[in-house]
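In this supplementary section we document a worked example of the pipeline. Step one takes a protein sequence of length 144 as its only input; no multiple sequence alignment statistics are reported here. Step two produces a three-dimensional model, which step three serialises into structure tokens for compact storage. The input and output of this example are shown verbatim.
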Amino acid sequence: MNYKNVFIKGAISSEFIGNSIAKHQSKTNIGAHNIFLGQVRADKIEGKVVAAIEYSAYEEMANKNFHEIREATFEKFNLTCMHIYHSLGLVKTGEICLFVFVSSPRRKEVFKALEYVVEAIKADVPVFGKELFEDESHQWKVNS
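The serialised model returned by step three reads:
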């Protein structure tokens, strides 16, 4: 089965995010949106500063996991729609690497649903980040 591809090459732009929101203004049964934006931090690790993260994934498996998370979220919460986008490749500090967008007729649903989705992504999706330091060394990121 072919699952929806959630991956975007490089950072997720503010234009992309803004356009995604604008597209929902015609859906007048929506009363609330909630958005999570994951941004690359300039973490300091053993005296070295992260300059970027290079994301890779088992894309087929990751897209299947994203699909399963999406289905489970729709079963648990009264959502009108939901979108997930994750970066692949190089994302510099300060740039957006994860964009999750949930919509519902009611505000309380979007708060609970968004937390559920983001935690499930962190726990279950095989996306890997290689931290690239300012001194050009690197290491694999450990999710926290």
